[in-house]
Amino acid sequence: MDQATKRELLDKDRQRVWHPFTQMKDYARQDHLLIEKAEGIFLYDADGNRYYDTVSSWWVNVHGHGHPRIKQAIIRQLEETDHIMFSGFTHRPGIELADKLLAIAPPGLGKTFYSDNGSTAVEVALKMSFQYWRHVGRPSKTKFAYLANSYHGDTLGAVSVGGVDLFHATFRPLLFDGYRLPSPLVGEWSGGRPTPEAAETSVAKALEAVKQLFETSAGEIAGLIVEPMIQAAGGMLMHPAAYIAGLRELCSRYDVHLIADEVAVGFGRTGTMFACEHAHVTPDLLCLSKGLTAGMMPLAATLCTDAIYEAFYDDYETQKTFFHGHSFTGNPLACAVALESLRIFEEEGVLDNVRAASDALRGHLPGLETFRHVANMRHLGLVAAFDLYADAASQTPYPPSERRGYQVYLEALKEGLILRPLGDTIYYWLPHCTTVAQLEDIVSRTSSVLERLGYR
Ligand code: PMP
Fold it and tell me: Which HAMAP family has this protein been placed in (predicted)?
């Protein structure tokens, strides 16, 4: 693209567009990257510069950008239908996808309810759970339990069960009350990995808090919502599978729905198709989006048990309808893409590649841990994260005003890397197509960035 066109577009962008999660004054000082082309793990800007998309375009991309089979799937579907409403009408891709999802999801889920983004997948789960308890004659079960540092989306229901004060505190007066539980392992790192004993104690402590809450209040709790294995936006906090298994056991014992928000971690990102598989757990409600369409189209699904569905199954007069739906619910193009993505998973050995890339990633992380200001290295599947500290041993943070994570982001761009930080937490959230050679290059570039910024 010529420089004049590029300048004109970027100026218009500044004048006319309001981007999400963007500090206005940063934007005034620093152009957004104007992306012209995306291919595999790479994005290319208007000047032809190439960047590793190490955050999979906000954690959605799976098979790499521009996968030819996905493109073909969109074209094929467009030749049949474009968007069709999904109430009173149905279509083959919507039916086949629901069937496929229920076949590969943890066993015991019976119905698929579509929406179009992660936040709405969560809204649907919360509303279904809430309404279910009314239908079964337990209307006092109206509240939700959620974890500190949890993130479930930006719509008001999802924010109500969000535990990241930076994002959520402003809206508190608008939100419904719930019970905030401690997240396991937070505070258990001390300049290194928690020992297995420390992790076990921390999980036991966190589960004890859940148990105590349920002892006193399960009668008013509809569901407990959790991001299984990785609390992502809250700082890439990872917990042992035993925690999820423990939650399942407590939710079953005290009659509380377990709502698994796998919007971010679903579809192979953690090394298994669904993160709940690490704990051999089936939730009552499972929220999916992002990787559902391999990150190519907006689509979401909330899967629920037959028991939940059956509580809504009645005649119109009983008013048990689930009054929830979006214009683009179950978009056929998106469903066709999701189906093709699931075929690619099966036919192209995608999970094998995830495991190979994950092993290679694990092998490279100790190199990054040699930096004096790097602490709390954690890793699962295609996700790895570490925190920058002024003093790693005592976990003394840098003053927030120094915006260390943001500085890393800016420097990494010069290195052809997109390292989008969460505060001073730097992370990778890699696409499944990442090769072992690309991984080595990504880690080596990250090292150069940290070196140049004086973290050695
Ligand atoms: N749940 C989780 C765990 C997420 O990470 C996100 C988005 N990052 C959401 C829900 C919300 O998804 P969306 O941005 O598509 O609304």
Answer: BioA
